[in-house]
Every structure is written in structure tokens, then in C-alpha cells.
Amino acid sequence: MLTGMARLLVVKATAGADSPERCSQAFTVASTAAASGVDVSFWLTGESTWFALPGRAAEFELPHAAPLPDLLDLLLASGKVTACTQCAARRAITPADVLPGIRIAGAAVFVEEVTAESAQALVY
Fold first, then answer.
1. In whole angstroms, what is the distance from residue 124 CA to residue 119 CA?
2. Beta partners for 120?
3. What is the pLDDT of residue 7?
4. What is the β-pairing status of strands 80-84 and 8-13?
5. What are phi and psi of 12, to 5 degrees?
């Protein structure tokens, strides 16, 4: 746990079904931190942006991994989930398309979060 190191953990998922282990690692680390009481900001970028859409996490399969819908639900309930503005636009995803609780924001917001004094960032 990040006790004493940071109060905000920013996790950026850059992979989706194209790299399932990397994708699952990002979701697992972020949700484990959130379940442990750490304040988490989880970013969906690149191919992981698709998981902002209803039903997409349920399509993801990786043997011996926790189900993505469960991890995403935990993150939505206890953290902040953001889809990258440019990544969403490249996939024609709008704010009206995403799951409730997911915001679309850009680089300025990401930089603000990762440069906060209490932040630690991880990129998968």
C-alpha cells in the first residue's frame, strides 16, 4: 500500500484486448489500491478507452484474472475513472456514450493529477 508515500494513485491503462495481461494488470492494481482505501484516479487511454462503453468490459477475457466488469465497478464506486479526450474522439466515443461515472478529460487534467504533491503515477 502507498502508506506515507502518496494519497492519490493515478493509474493509466494504455492497453485493451490488444494486450490483455497489461490491461488486466492496470485494472487489478488500481482496484486493489481502491479496495485498500487509496484514493485512485484510473485513466482509460488507447485501446482501453473502449472499456468506457457499456458492455465492453464483459467481453474481455483473460484466464486466471479477475473479471474486468467487477474491477471497473469497484473503481467507479470508489475512485475516479476518466477516458482520454483524444483517445475517445479517435474512436467516436462521446460523453453520452460512456458508462455513468466516467468522465472524458484531457492531458491538462492528467498532468494536474500526476503533479499533485500527494500523487504517484503508474502507466500500464
1. 17
2. 9
3. 83
4. unpaired
5. -115, 115
State whether CATH 3.40.50.1820 applies to domain 8-123. no
96, pLDDT greater than 90: yes
Task: List CB contacts of 121: < 8 A, sequence separation 6 or more.
Answer: 9, 10, 11, 12, 113, 114
Query: Looking at the whole model, is its pTM more than 0.90?
Result: yes
Indicate if the pLDDT at residue 123 is higher than 50.
yes
Closest CA to 11 of 37, 43, 35, 34: 43
Is 77 in a helix, a strand, or coil? helix
Where do the domains of the chain lie?
8-123
Query: Burial, 117: exposed, middle or buried (Cβ in 10 Å; 0-12, 13-18, 19+)?
Result: exposed
Q: If you average pLDDT over residues 47-52, what whole number do you get? A: 98
Query: Which region among 29-43, 86-100, 109-123 has the lowest average model confidence (pLDDT)?
Result: 109-123
Distance of CA 93 to the CA centre of its chain: 16
